[in-house]
Amino acid sequence: MLQLPALKHPDYRRLWFGAAFNQQGMSGEHVVLGALVFQITESTGWIGAIMAVYFLPLFVFGMLSGAVADWMDRRTLLRRTELAFVALQLCFAALLFLGIDDLPMIVAFTLLTGSLRALHQPVRVSYAYDIVGSGQVVSGLGLLNLSGRSGQLVGALLVGLVMKHYGAPAALTVIATGHAIAFLAFARLRSAGKAAVKDHAPIGQNLREYAAELRTNGILTMLVLITAAVEVFGFSFATALPELATARLNLGEDGLGYLHAARAAGGIVAGLAMSFMGQMQRRGLAYLFVIFAFGASILLLSVEGALLFTVCAVALVALLATTSDVLTQSMMQLSVANELRGRAMGVWVLAVGIAPIGHLQFGALSVVIGLSNTLAVNGAILVVVGLVVALAAPRLRQL
Questions:
Q1: Rounded to whole angstroms, what are the CA distances from 141 to 57, 108, 126, 136, 334?
Q2: pLDDT at residue 374 in the model
Q3: Which pTM does this prediction carry?
């Protein structure tokens, strides 16, 4: 019978439950921000800009967030960030309710919530490793992604429907409620985990060790560069969703919610599959295959089709995106000493933080050559990236 060893740990179950409600907030934010900005500007270029602002803190604070994750008790950080999410979402809802819905205010909120995401991500992933240990890291992270994508699925559908019928303030209140539930789950975390760092060094020392590790650890540096390239040309597909929902499918906020739900559903399938991997061998070879398939799936999404075709294409792209995330997160953490794992996830956040370039180039290119052509170009470039990595980085195949 199939087993999920991670779920035997009570604290992992609490983390899993809380992560689902945290991530419903993330997908809900994407629906609200995408809909608001497209209503104001009617431009995919502006959608690319707002997504760039959302992910900019990942790059700016990536190294710092990893150092903080190794400095403080990760359970405390999880609780504090959830409370901050609740306060921020309710403030944004109140401003929109009062009629303050101009673009600069939306950009400011986007920057603040992106900063909280930059801090939360390495803490959550590192704490999952703390609980399950190195032997079950792929399974544990895959199961955690399953939780997150399930939350994103519910969040996208629920927030899209609430926003359509009751407006953005009500949608943001739903998001804040989810974060409050996540806080309650994280408040019950008891153990630091069997692989937790016992001695927490000051942030300054953490950052110095961080920089030294990047200079000397060739595998980690290689993974950072590959992750950044995949982020720019792969994950930027999310910029296309508002225009796909409105221009291609002639739907409103609920249609955008459907596409984000399809994105989450693809992630759920990937997370479920990775959950049963156990002690996976040849992660690097699997990662190369994922890069090629990721590019091919974006090429498929560039083909215009009806709702069902587009939803399935989005789900496939998301499935491969999630698999890419799990593999890079596990390989980065396994490539460093145990006391550096939080910083390894900070490096991952730093690599993911290159996303603003991807969203900006996607938005700008779509204005010039159109949405479908932009998807085709990005998909083709990602396939080329996979080919270059396969030829130029043979060490990756041995990981």
A1: 23, 32, 9, 8, 12
A2: 95
A3: 0.72
